[in-house]
Amino acid sequence: MRCMVLHPDAFPLIKQLNTKAVVYDCNGRALRIPARAASMLEREKELLAHADLVFTGGPSLYEAKKSRHQSVHCFSSSVDTTHFGKAKPESDLAEAPEQASFPGPKLGFLRRG
Fold first, then answer.
1. Which of 12, 36, 62, 87 has the fewest Cβ atoms within 10 angstroms?
2. Residue 48: its pLDDT value, please?
C-alpha cells in the first residue's frame, strides 16, 4: 500500500498500516492553527521521519522543510495561462454581475471538494 498524507494528524493511522511508501504533501494549512501548533509540529516531525517523499506547496514551505527531510520537492501553485487561455477568447468573457462593481485587476480561484 502507498499512502499520501495531507495532514500530520493522519500519521497515527499511517503508522498502523503496512505501507510500502508514504508521501507527505505539505501545504502548511495544518500548522497555521495557533492552539495546536506545538502538537502539530511534533506530529509533523514524526511524519517527516517516516515519509519517503515530501512535496511542498510553495517556495517558503520548501525552504522550511528541505533541511528536515532528504527528499523534499517544491510544487508551487500556478496556472498554465497558455493552456487555459485557449478556453475562450478574452473578448468573449462577460463580467460576472456579482463582481462588476469591484475595481480591477481581478484574480479568481476555485476550490472543489
1. 87
2. 94
